[in-house]
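Customer ticket, subject: "Can you confirm the structure for Flavin-containing monooxygenase?"

Message body: Hello, I'm evaluating your service for our small team and ran a test protein. I'd like someone to confirm that this is what the system normally returns, since I don't have a reference to compare against.
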Amino acid sequence: MTDLNQTTFQKCTAMTVDKTAIDTLVVGAGQAGVAMSEHLSKLGVPHLVLERNRIAEAWRTGRWDSLVANGPAWHDRFPGLEFDGLDPDAFAGKEQVAEYFEAYARKFNAPIRTGVEVKCVQRNADRPGFTVETSDGVIEARHVVVATGPFQRPAIPPIAPPMAGISQIHSAQYYNPQQLAEGAVLVVGAGSSGVQIADELQRSGKQVYLSVGAHDRPPRAYRNRDFCWWLGVLGEWDAEAMQPGKEHVTIAVSGARGGHTVDFRRLAHQGMTLVGLTQSFNGAVVSFEDNLADNIRRGDENYLALLDKADAYIERNGLDLPLEPEARAMLADPDCVTNPILELDLLKAGVTTIIWATGYSTDYSWLKVDAFKDNGKPQHQRGVSAEPGVYFVGLPWQSRRGSAFIWGVWHDAKHIADHIVKQHTYFNYRDATQRQADAARAPVQKASLMGVR
Ligand SMILES: Cc1cc2nc3c(=O)[nH]c(=O)nc-3n(C[C@H](O)[C@H](O)[C@H](O)COP(=O)(O)OP(=O)(O)OC[C@H]3O[C@@H](n4cnc5c(N)ncnc54)[C@H](O)[C@@H]3O)c2cc1C
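Agent reply: Thanks for trying us out. I re-ran your input and got the following:
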């Protein structure tokens, strides 16, 4: 996958002389930037949030039309505001999520300037802080918080050649079935995006091939509790590190049509053709790894493990939640699982579109500071970067599993705001000699203020 994070430690280009100064500059006004602004406001830290588009733009134009939040409204929100007029168990539509963050920002009068892009951030050589070039002038900032999100640039593995007669788009460019040409679709990637898009296309009447890799698929709900609740009480949202070996495991959940458990066998029984991990292309002939059955089996294991943990939790805590033995019933393996397709000639199969639901990468090319590892990823501890004064918020696993999600980012933002305030304390410290000098200067300053010479 192309890594766009290779941050070159170069200088910014031209700089103008008129500068605005601010203690803390937050870059990006998605949920991470809004959360950051709330905590900085509460702590009285002068700050400004710059957003190149609109507040929560990703939820408006970066997602497909029918997308709803993956978690119910009672869960996928910040502590300080509920979704207006929405049943707590309902799943907010993407526009409702965007409006929620706009309303949230209005609630505390967040100092957000939209339509301003940060072009370059560079550490000052002769004084503390950073010089920030924006599309609307230059700003001096003591601290810079990078809240530009973990999902910035659509990432497509470089395995597919351009093919005449087959259009290829990323899931970020998918909006609805009507935009696609007539014909079958290959969806590559079966995380939450891929599986929901494939399901929507299948329901619209299209023939769909879905390439399924390693995945977790928690039950949507079990024994009257949503999986968000289960992951919360079982401490899994707060897990501080990913389990080894899970780096390439996506999570397949869906809030669509009121929420349902993702069940790949059911999709296949409804007519979708499942295939294993997409391996390589030879012209329009695509090869799939022979791992479909294994991927499905591991997904089942993950599903059943959560049911087991939930049952144990209920028993240990004596909770009165109804039994749900039918949740353990599995459909029979469909033919595409028992006799997997390992090679498919896309043209012969009538495939006219490939949708790559293969995730995102980041772009920090504008951040010319020493805050990155050799692989281009941020070097940080809970968002406090290796470059003093530069912070990240909203990174996956920044401090815990929930970090990149709505309910997790708010807590990480609080930690960053606290850190900035602590740095003020250090920076404002005056040693004995300095305090004496301050005291000696004080009467002179006071007298001069009173007009006495
Ligand atoms: C398809 C999809 C569905 C998701 N569904 C859910 C869900 O249901 N629940 C959940 O909790 N999470 C969900 N997430 C994960 C996450 O909550 C969202 O991706 C969310 O948008 C991340 O918020 P953020 O503020 O970190 O980043 P973003 O929302 O991406 O915000 C970053 C902002 O920074 C701005 N920006 C970037 N660079 C600059 C610059 N140089 N200058 C100025 N501004 C800049 C961008 O314009 C953008 O508005 C989903 C993610 C995806 C991809």
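A couple of notes from the result: The pocket of flavin-adenine dinucleotide is lined by residues 27-33, 50-53, 57-58, 63, 69-71, 76, 117-118, 147-149, 151, 193, 366, 394, 404-406 (CB under 6 Å). The chain has two domains: 3-152+362-427, 156-356. Feel free to reply with more questions.
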